[in-house]
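User: quick one, fold this
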Amino acid sequence: MTNGIEAKQGGTFSFGVGNDGLYSLSFSLSTGLTKSGWALSVLGAKRWGDGYIQGTNFEGYNWFVNISKRINDRHQLSLTAFGAPQKHAQRHALDDGLKIEEWQKAKNFMGEKDMYRYNAEYGFDKNGRQRYSHFNEYHKPQISLNHQWQIDYKSSLSTALYMSIGRGSGYSGQGRTSADRNMWKGTNYGVLNTTFRNPDGTFAYDKIQEMNAASPDGSRMIMSKSNNNHMWYGLLSTYTNQISKSLELSAGIDVRYYIGEHNNEIIDLYDGKYFIDDSSRANVKPEQNAAAADPNWVYEKLQVGDKVYRDYDGHVHQEGVFAQLEWTKKNLNAFVSGSVSNTGYWRYDRFYYDAAHAESEHVNFIGYTVKGGANYNINEKHNVFANLGYISRAPFFSGGAFLQSTTSNVKNPDPLNEKVFSAEIGYGFRSGILSVNLNGYYTLWMDKSVVRSSSMANGDYARVNLSGVDARHMGLELDFVLRPNRWLDVTGMLSLGDWQWDSDSKGYIYDTQGQPLTKALDGTVASGIMAEDHAWLNLKQKGIKVGGSAQTTGALGVTVRPMKGLRVSADWNAYGNNYADFYIGSNTSLNGNSTVDVKDPWKIPWGHQLDLSASYAFKIGNVRATIYGNVNNVYDYNYIMDAQCAAADEGIWQNVYAVMYSFGRTYTVRLKINF
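Assistant:
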């Protein structure tokens, strides 16, 4: 479908339904390659529903267009555009996840069967309209013009010129104080936020309206839209040459330029007359923005459409070259590849700086990759392979190039490229009915930038920007496919991982508004980023398990085709050795300019689920049709997928929060017609 010239003439139409008001529509059309050398393919789809989780209604679209022209045997042009606009309400893990015992209280609102669907931010305003603390809306279409040139029988050139136009936003609740801002959260470290809570468990957005309407100094809490738009331009060109029967060269250039526009725009005053953003504007320095010299500017009465908290552009450009040599001789195939690139960053800030100071210093970083590998076919059934790689890539824009990119032009005085070393060895077996792959891997992540958080006594959150963080990932992976006959397939996989942090690290501490904090961690802003009074923290985490992903996974699947057109499948997936990710701690345990010893995190109990699917192909007249059905998590078993725990707390279930459970049983049914 995505290759218009290769696509066959025809089209499809499908309609589907599912649990919780799910509906889906899709179509595709293709002309195939016409006699004049043109081809056109289009696709469109819509998917909408109420969402499995309470109050997470969604609406999403997909579209795709490809126009191709075969000019002659050597030249081909292709214009492609695609996008996926969507909008959806959210249940946010950190802001809405509960402690394990708190989830049991959700039975009072949802009943025992549906308690894990509970959304602590679901609620209504005084007019009965559903409101949201988290709601996302994005569309990031991409357009590319591709030229394929077959230079001669052994060489070709493929060139793509592309651009992406991203427009999107997510809700971001704002407040006069940090305590006001935190009231938009459904939970506070896993405990249900009861300040704006109705007896039925819904979030009382109407009470926020009442509070703001009665306030003599404008809204205490307002909703902003965190806009994150981008323009992205790029050129990718690859030259391929079959130098000899055994040796092939691929080389090219990769150039790109990215502009990200980031700001927070007031969209709802929640019945207040205005909003004063003094918690952000008080941190604007007169020597950087002349407007701050006027004391009245800090207390300006803002309206819908005005900017709060941040308003800046991030600029990223990258220029690189790459090459690969691949050698094939009888039973041996080997390759070596490498790349070198320059990445440049700068930012332009309209909030904390005036026009004379808005543009930051431009910073550049050289990155490179070196990779090599080989595969040897012992005979037609057995093969062995090995791969090595080393990557040195530019540090991230935020926390790497700039210490606090949301609010400051201050660059990192000692930025480090992130590095990755990876090695892999493996064995493969192929026969008429069985294929097996077994491999072992060892990966070192070095000088990563990581952000950890903690609460403070004033109700705000402290964020620690850690640098120079290392992690070690190693493990074994096995997968197989067994086809004893035409009507039966058996598939399986097992991954045994051992992932842990491999270094201690130091970081500087900021509040949620991006301001540097002093050692007291009471909300007092330091004199500057990395100044003498800027609080820091040492984190002793070497040897601690990496959290957030299952380190042991397994799967077993069976597909049966008992009669013509009918397929029935069962897939079992299991997840183990999943550890809670850790945050720094709370105001009772966190001190600036100190060291935190990280304890072993809680090991989440293993989870598993069984999924069933089936399809049946038949004809309606001369039209081919297929009906599909899926039931996921057949046994309606809810298992824990994610959790957080304090770094210095014992890793037991009583100490974890932000616990999120898997979806229960879901289903879809879809009819597809081919013509």
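User: anything notable?
Assistant: The mean pLDDT is 95.
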